[in-house]
Amino acid sequence: MSTTEYAHITVSAEGVPMLAGGQVKVVEVALDHLAHGWDAEEIHRQYPELTLGQIHSALAYYYDHQAEIDDDIERRLKKVEEIARRLGPGPMMLKLKTLRRIP
Predict the structure, then answer these.
(1) The predicted structure's pLDDT at residue 100
(2) How many CB atoms are closer than 10 A to CB 26?
(3) Which residues have CB under 8 Å from 80's CB, separation 6+?
């Protein structure tokens, strides 16, 4: 079985695919694409420090490893939901609930 190399992509010691030379994770580029519907050019407009080559490599990596990265996204969302449940409503939410009860 051959492995595909991706220009601009490295995998950290923890197994996290990253854009080479920086701190941006492939999953972050994929999330911008999925959540906002941004194409590579729009991601570049939003993050001009990234090259179009880096963005295209990140998106290619995402689509070649989609199931694995989608599982990572789902795991991250569950972790956020768990933290939110543990913390409970913040002061602003409590204030809004109080205001809603006033006739």
Answers:
(1) 72
(2) 26
(3) none
**Rounded to an integer, what distance in angstroms lies between the CA atom of residue 54 and that of residue 20?**
8
Q: How many CA atoms lie within 13 A of 86 on its CB side?
A: 6
pLDDT of residue 21: 87
Under 8 Å between Cβ of 61 and 26: yes
Q: Are 17 and 9 in contact (CB under 8 A)?
A: yes
Distance, in Å, from the CA atom of 49 to the CA atom of 21, rounded to the nearest integer, reads 11
Rg over alpha carbons for the chain, rounded to the nearest Å, is 18
The domain ranges of the chain are 9-101
* 42: three-class secondary structure by DSSP: helix
